[in-house]
Amino acid sequence: MRVGESKRPLSNSWRLLVGLFVVIALAAPLSAGEATLHRDSWGVPHIWADDYSSAGYALGQAQCEDSLSNVIYCLHAGVGRLAELMGPGMLKADTEARKLRHGAFAKRDWPKLGFSTRQLIAGFCAGVNDYIETHPDELVVPIGEVTPEQVVAWHRSLLLLSAVAISRADAEASKSDGYHPVYNPKNVGDKGGSREEKKHPGVPPGKSNSWALAGVKTASGKPMLLIDPHWMAEGHLQLYEFWLHIRGEVDTGGFALTGTPFPGLGLTAHAAWTVTAGGADSSDAYALKINPDNPHQYEFDGKWRDMDVRKETIRIRQPDGTMQEKRIEVLATRHGPILETKSGVPFAAAMGGYGRADAFDQYYKMMTARTTAEFKRAIGLNRISYFNFMWATAAGDIGFVQTGQAPLRPRGFNWEKMVPGWTSASLYRGQVPFDAHPTVENPVTGFLQNCNVAANVVTPGLTMTKDDFPPGVLFGHYGQYRARGWRATQLLTRVDKATLADGRRIAFDSYVPPADLWAPIILQAWSEHEATAADQRLREAVKLIGSWNRRASRDSVGATVFRFWRLACHEMDSKVGRDAFSISNTPEIRRDALAALRTAADRLHDTYGRVAVPWGEIKRLRRGDKEWPLSGDGLGKLGMDALRATAADTFNDQHKLIPRGGQCVTSIVTLTDPPTIRAVVTYGQSNKPNSKHFADQAPLFSEERFRKVPWTLEQLRSSIESTKKFAYDSTEKP
Q1: Start and end residues for every CATH 1.10.1400.10 domain found in the chain
Q2: Residues 6+ apart with CB under 8 A from 598
Q3: Of 363, 376, 426, 370, whose CA–CA distance to 394 is shortest?
Q4: Residues 6+ apart with CB under 8 A from 102
Q5: Which residues have C-beta within 8 Å of that of residue 467, sequence separation ≥ 6?
Q6: Where in the chain is the domain with CATH 3.60.20.10?
Q7: DSSP per residue over 76-117, as a string?
């Protein structure tokens, strides 16, 4: 048997009869190759397994039960095979995946992964394949067997999402220069690098929250961690909740990328972890000089060099079900894969970790670490790109590190734009050691927060500067808190002996920090204004702003006026309403502020028949034919940037804002023994409309409430809704 292959001990038809059955009471002790899948009263899977293979098998079955279409999509996306399922519309996505070689690197690295990692993934694939075979009525088109390489490729593709986006942004930043690099050759070749050259790439720093409280700040005396990614709430990027217990090996759980069997955000009995966007910048764009007589050659140090040329065949499903094939070329230079700008200009994308597909081993080591030292060694593998990584351990430690496989860049080049790919002087000088990345552990303040802020403001009192770190590592908006980070710092500073109720209050805080700056300016502008009878709507809007408690709660009318004011500011050619921590309060700013408020008041009245409209009538959570009011708001089009980040900035035809992402899988973890966990997802565990768990958590999410998450079998006992037992045993041995 080849490495990674798992032999199935039972035929599929026989397994249907004897390998899968419903148990009335709790499962008996497991035998080799058995896994028991309990679903609690919210439909969330809790798996107790004998080994990694059977655990993966049960999890594969569970993900398919809840979200088969998403699983299939994900496992075809990474390897560039979506057109096989969905037709010509997916050709562009498949071409991109082939250019980035996710499938090729996954195939190469799959046999190199650790034994237990491979067992969990291989078992997962077996569970998916058996579900597909036994539920053909749920398939829109026929599906072949999925393989472990597809899981690895999908995971790799998502880890590189930000890296690809940054390299593209750097390339597009050269548009005004005709897509030609502009650089100062004076310092070319100097290995020191300039600390000012890579201030930030041209992409937003992301929208997620995290914080950690040390035991001295909690009622339990144990660390507390917030897991709060602002991500897609539905579709193939939706996160999947599960809890997994493998006998004698690991107790873990949390939220995984659909189509994978490892918790990307989660916990064990020994540690908990989460991420936000905005890690170390590890990507660049190299301009190319391509041989006009041979498109497969590029200039490097005065000579034409051959590109790496690979032929790929993409199969495309036609409306009649037949397949057509399209042959493409996948090109790369020594810098990385060749991509194109929006204008069709080719460039080479250089990305830290591009040549690897082994990040799953880091997750395995994280979830099997027993001590803080072991957990830190696992993080130090540095296989997770471009994230602010927050963690806590049961031993009492909390920490932050800005991850990303960042290069050592030579001086003399503007790394925010294209750099010349035809000279060895622009080549990377190695990789920044992980221990040189911005790191903060166990601060005297007793807390850390990262709401997409820079490393120097994750807690008050830090003295780190850009000069403390290699160039390009201290990413983005240096020295600024941003509104959510400022608010989190304020609340975490005040809290003492925090309970889970305190954690919930902070996680769902709907205070609107920008209002502290702009509301006084609006009120001053009105006080200076000579009101007339024509100002009735404006007068009412001013009154609502003046009496507003500056929270975007569901029943708040002041929040609605302020949000529409911000939208009107977005449409103006003015600095008024823009995100800032200070502003020159000039007569012009006050004039524009009042003009924007007039626009907002008129728009509210014309659209809804009144100026005073509760925020929850406009900001709505919707699934199927049901709706619920929502609090909070995100960033889009000058949103309110509350910690309660319910993102939506496009009105539907009913003049409502319906989020499809933002705060989506919020969880508070306290590392007691056993861990104490509270969580809620946007809609429910299942994506099947006929399931009772399709939207059963939506009322909780609307009302800013958590559900209790059982950790032990004893805690789970009273809330078991269903139980299934699976028999699956891999014959592969270490």
Answers
A1: 514-642
A2: 535, 537, 538, 541
A3: 370
A4: 78, 79, 80, 153, 154, 156, 157, 160, 357
A5: 195
A6: 195-280+355-507
A7: HHTTT-THHHH-GGGHHHHHHHHHTTHHHHHHHHGGGS-HHH
How sure is the predictor about 474, in pLDDT bands with cuts at 50, 70 and 90?
A: low
For 66-117, what is each residue's pLDDT tens digit? 999 999 999 999 999 999 999 999 999 999 999 999 999 999 999 999 999 9
Name the residue with tokens 């996710």: 102
Tokens representing 427 are 């080549």
Greatest distance between any 2 Cα atoms in the chain: 86
- 339 closest CA partner among 150, 152, 92: 92
Tell how strand 398-402 and strand 308-317 pair up. Answer: unpaired
Q: 272: closest CA among 231, 213, 221, 218?
A: 213
Alpha helices in 197-311 (DSSP H): none
CATH T-level topology, domain 195-280+355-507 = Glutamine Phosphoribosylpyrophosphate, subunit 1, domain 1 (3.60.20)
Backbone angles phi, psi at 161, to 5 degrees: -55, -50
Tokens of 367: 């979830």
CA distance 551 to 179: 45
Beta pairing class for 283-287 and 419-420 = parallel
Which CATH number does 514-642 carry?
A: 1.10.1400.10
Q: Phi and psi for 543 in degrees, rounded to 5?
A: -60, -40
- Interhelix angle 587-608/536-547, rounded to 10 degrees, is 100
Q: CB neighbours (10 Å) of residue 340?
A: 12
What CA–CA distance (Å, rounded) separates 418 from 347? Answer: 8
CA 82/CA 94 separation, integer angstroms: 6
The model's pTM? 0.92
Q: What is the residue whose two structure tokens read 């408690």?
A: 549
Structure-block tokens of residue 26: 């709790």
Is the Cβ–Cβ distance between 254 and 665 less than 8 Å? Answer: no
> Which three-class secondary structure string do you get for 615-628?
HHHHEEEEECCEEE
Q: How many CB atoms lie within 10 A of CB 326?
A: 14
At residue 481, the pLDDT reads 59
Amino acid at 601: A
Beta pairing class for 224-228 and 665-670: antiparallel
Is residue 103 within 8 Å of residue 80, measured between CB atoms? Answer: yes
Q: Are 210 and 388 in contact (CB under 8 A)?
A: yes
pLDDT at 187 over 90: no
**Is 487 in contact with 643 (CB distance < 8 Å)?**
yes
pLDDT tens digit string along 121-148?
Answer: 999 999 999 999 999 999 999 999 999 9
User: Which of these, 249, 257, 276, lies nearest to 367 by C-alpha position?
Assistant: 249
What DSSP designation does 591 have?
H
Averaged pLDDT for residues 569-592: 92
Number of helices (H), then strands (E), belonging to the chain: the values are 19, 30
Q: How deeply is 592 buried, as exposed, middle or buried, from its count of CB atoms within 10 A (0-12, 13-18, 19+)?
A: buried
| Sheet containing strand 283-287, strands side by side | 338-340, 346-351, 283-287, 419-420
Nearest one of 233, 260, 230, 231 to 244, comparing CA atoms: 260
Q: How confident is the model at residue 582 (pLDDT cuts 50, 70, 90)?
A: confident
Q: What is the Cα gyration radius of the chain?
A: 27
